[in-house]
């Protein structure tokens, strides 16, 4: 059985009108459609829908883990995370327990785990995922596996948001760029929505009888189709129809239409683009309302990050008195996101030696704070956002043991 053929509920929207498509078509010929059907794999990748970012009212009484996770995802939907990332609930205790204490940390280390146990923590929210690569065994010699074992034994759940916090509007990168003051902020790498419909099939039918037949077959596939049409085209007695469907429903949709003579002769397939999620995505560029010089930018970022020292690479031909009117930021390791962006100043946690040389040679100055120092300050901001959405009985703490492994000596 082809994937998606048994249950297509909620995947179709059948629309009939004389209007032109709103996206650029990727049209396939009838021969190409047949080739496509024979070569298409049965397994497909599903894109989770983006959740609403609306604020939820605090509940009363004991809070379950699933309720706490719902609040966390309302604040930063996991669908915003990068595809390579490992986000969400990473450790789930076997015995459910009420969530009374939540500990926020940038990294889950031995010191942070000891702190979590000392405060009787029920849920650790670790910005960086302590479990990232696939695990074949749980043994004591690996420090990350050891931490996972300790969490399970202590009945502590572990959740990681990572790049969903980077991407979400008002998240880590918006907090980081605000360190240099207000400005016109834009996203460097735009996040895209997880649209439920990925393809549009356009075709013609001779009359309403054939139209009804198409609709009945969709209903037989449990498609839940809705039929709308505006009459015949001006230059033809035929009716123009279109079906929008999910990726998993594409193959059965095409097969159904090919069983009808007129639709099979006029069928075209278009790939629909995912809609942009405005304000969400990786990295930020700010055109400052009040430009500053490089020296002032350094001091502002020290204050914002709570650091005594930063590393600075001056761009070619620049001095500490050179003006900074635009700044591009990416929390953590930002070289790939910042690559090619035109700005007077880059701010990120870390870049390689040669990446810094390349950027500086183009006249852009670079501030490096070390990786987690560009992220950790957001925990305090997030604590306030989270606390007001939880019952009063739930305590939200920011780890005191969490720190960047590197320090200036």
TrEMBL record:
Q: Which residues cross the membrane?
A: none
Question: Which Pfam family, any one, appears in the UniProt record?
Answer: DUF34_NIF3
One molecular function GO term is: metal ion binding
Metal-binding found in the keyword field? yes
Q: Name one GO biological process term.
A: regulation of DNA-templated transcription
Subcellular locations according to the entry: Cytoplasm; Nucleus
User: Does the keyword field hold Translocase?
Assistant: no
The residues that hold a divalent metal cation are 128, 166, 371, 375
- Alphabetic keyword roster: Acetylation, Cytoplasm, Metal-binding, Nucleus, Phosphoprotein
Q: Name one GO cellular component term.
A: nucleus
Q: Which coarse location class describes where this protein primarily resides? A: cytoplasm
Q: Please give the subunit comment from the record.
A: Homodimer. Interacts with COPS2. Interacts with THOC7.
Family according to the record: Belongs to the GTP cyclohydrolase I type 2/NIF3 family.
Q: What is this protein's function?
A: May function as a transcriptional corepressor through its interaction with COPS2, negatively regulating the expression of genes involved in neuronal differentiation.
Q: Which PANTHER family match?
A: NGG1 INTERACTING FACTOR 3, NIF3-LIKE PROTEIN 1
Q: Which NCBIfam families match?
A: YbgI_SA1388 (TIGR00486)
Q: Supply the name of the protein.
A: NIF3-like protein 1
**Which organism is this entry from?**
Kryptolebias marmoratus
